[in-house]
């Protein structure tokens, strides 16, 4: 087991644990205002200090982790649920009009930066966590469709697929029973990468006010609130920024470690 996989699993688990614990316990009420204790630096009473409303930063970071993970996880789920079947269909119908429609639709989405598309969608639908999920999920669909199609095309000419076709199995059944299990490892690795990108996208949307809305804490919103107070209260920006860095780094290391662990060609090369 690689160091990347171990370190990524540890960092990701810490963030996930903080999010899960926040459902039942936080040191303070994350929404409670305490103006007399505003802008307190980190201390034994408030581990990460307090913000400009006197709210406990540690409690807000815990609940913010829950928000970011929920948005990114559901968005990746949407991308996989719709993108994988589209990719399998395009590969099974290679060269047909259906393949062309699916892939040209992917190209259309890829023609625009993902964050720009997300901002456009949330601006039209309105700000909020649900609309942020829809926006991020829509961009994930062509990502998984393209990767699934590329991986599936290399399998359709393999001997075991030809044997399945000779036995009378249709394209849909072959895709479900033979193609999908053989590309699952690649999809898992890509899922972790898209998960980390979803965290960044959610933070970006919240930063510009189009993500989760107050009083629900969000790391991006915390960064936006801190930008005018960095000179005299740097912890307001450093702490949510470090939370984003640790989460994205952990997920990227986890994805890299999973790729090495699940890919038999890499294992053989290292052996």
Describe this structure in words.
With 271 residues, this protein is an all-alpha fold. It is 72% helix and 0% strand. The chain has helices at residues 3-21, 57-92, 97-110, 114-125, 129-153, 159-166, 171-207, 219-226, 235-262, 264-270. Helix 3 packs across helix 5 and helix 7 (171-207) packs parallel to helix 8. The radius of gyration is 22 Å and the shape is elongated. The two termini are 12 Å apart.
Rounded to the nearest angstrom, the radius of gyration is 22 Å
Strand content: under 5%
Helical stretch count? 10
Quaternary organisation? single chain
Q: Major sheet, described briefly?
A: none
- N-to-C span: 12 Å
Order of helices and strands: HHHHHHHHHH
Structural class: mainly alpha
**What would you call the shape?**
elongated
Helical content (DSSP H or I, runs of 4+): over 70%
Uncertain runs: none
Mean pLDDT: 90
What is the count of β-strands? 0
Give a quick precis of the structure.
The protein is mainly α. It has ten helices and no strands. Helix 7 (171-207) runs parallel beside helix 8 (219-226).
Element layout with pairings:
Elements: H1 3-21, H2 57-92, H3 97-110, H4 114-125, H5 129-153, H6 159-166, H7 171-207, H8 219-226, H9 235-262, H10 264-270
Helix pairs in contact: 1-2, 1-9, 2-3, 2-5, 2-7, 3-5, 4-5, 5-7, 6-7, 7-8, 7-9, 8-9
What keyword list fits this structure?
271 residues
């Amino acid at each position: 087991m690689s160091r990347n996989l171990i370190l990524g699993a540890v960092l990701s688990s810490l963030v996930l644990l903080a999010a899960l614990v926040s459902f039942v316990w936080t040191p303070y009420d994350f929404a409670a205002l305490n103006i007399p204790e505003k802008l307190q630096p980190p201390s034994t009473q408030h581990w990460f200090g307090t913000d400009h409303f006197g709210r406990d930063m540690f409690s807000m970071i815990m609940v913010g982790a829950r928000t970011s993970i929920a948005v990114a996880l559901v968005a990746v789920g949407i991308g996989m649920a719709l993108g994988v079947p589209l990719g399998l269909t395009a590969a099974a119908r290679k060269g047909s009009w259906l393949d062309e429609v699916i892939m040209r639709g992917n190209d259309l989405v890829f023609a625009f930066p993902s964050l720009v598309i997300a901002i456009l969608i949330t601006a039209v639908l309105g700000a909020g966590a649900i609309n942020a999920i829809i926006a991020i999920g829509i961009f994930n669909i062509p990502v998984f469709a393209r990767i699934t199609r590329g991986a599936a095309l290399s399998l359709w000419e393999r001997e075991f697929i030809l044997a399945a076709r000779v036995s009378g199995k249709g394209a849909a059944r072959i895709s479900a029973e033979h193609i999908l299990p053989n590309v699952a490892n690649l999809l898992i690795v890509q899922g972790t990468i898209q998960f980390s990108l979803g965290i960044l996208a959610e933070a970006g949307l919240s930063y510009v006010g189009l993500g989760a809305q107050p009083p629900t804490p969000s790391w991006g919103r915390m960064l936006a609130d801190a930008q005018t107070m960095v000179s005299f209260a740097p912890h307001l920006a450093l702490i949510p920024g470090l939370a984003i860095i640790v989460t994205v780094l952990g997920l990227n290391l986890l994805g890299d470690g999973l790729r090495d662990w699940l890919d038999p060609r890499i294992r053989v090369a290292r052996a």
